[in-house]
Amino acid sequence: MSRIHTPETLQKGDALPEEIQKLVRESARKKKGSTSARKSPYSGLWTVILTIVSVVYLIPIAMVFINSFKRKIYINKNPFSLPTSDTFFGINNYQQGIEKIGFWSAAANSAIITVGSVFVILLCTSMCGWYITRVNSMFSKIIYYLCTFSMIVPFQMVMYTLAKTADRLKLNNPYGIIVVYLGFGAGLAVFMFCGFAKSIPLEIEEAAMIDGCNPLQTYFQVVLPILKPTCISVAILEAMWIWNDYLLPSLVLDTTKYKTIPIAIQYLKGGYGAVDMGNMMAMLVLAILPIIIFYLICQKYIIEGVVAGAVKG
Length: 313
What we know:
Structural class: mainly alpha
Helix content: 55-70%
Largest sheet: none
Number of domains: 3
Number of strands: 0
């Protein structure tokens, strides 16, 4: 029985004719050359430029973090200096800021609004995007165009009407505002899900239906796992927007009862524009820390190719 040679054994040259060994070496040389040819001659330059841009973006975050440990009088005098024995204030800024604005209550409200809104947006818009892609009807086209059109409507045009409507419908609480965020976040999310759903091979869904899956089972067991990279991308964008949003909660929520972190931080402003910069910097650090951690955890899934290799010819 003849021995089956793999590419590895061919490269090792296991008792093969010299001509075949020469062809194998030439093929490997061409493959190596094509890989090196794909590298841009300016890749090193682009690396330097993008590194500089990254540092520029990180400088404000670093300055906020450094100044959060300094006394407020020294922040105004020399905001770019590192803390010294005279200027260092330890974690006192954090303790004072938490007590002044009721940070943990505001953080709970922000967490409820952000997690609830992102979950509802992902569930509803992913279903909507899949439906629009798979159902070719006038109704699905109208929904798609309405969602797309909502992205270009300025918020200032509808904010007063929205605030009045939300108050009448009793949506002025952390759970009711989730519905409002669904309306404003659906446009971009549906647009992204529609674009990704078009690339999902229809054969996967047909195979699931042949196996006895109904549309809901097909969506949750087949389509939704494939949409994972887009779900995480949409979740990051929506979470960053909702967590840091100030205008919409200030218009919709009853701020005498419910405050989000951006609203609560504004209460550090005193009379005549005076601001306790030490407490302000400390609260800003606590405000941006959760969203940075969330991004670092989820970023590796954004470019994940889940569909690749799902259907083999």
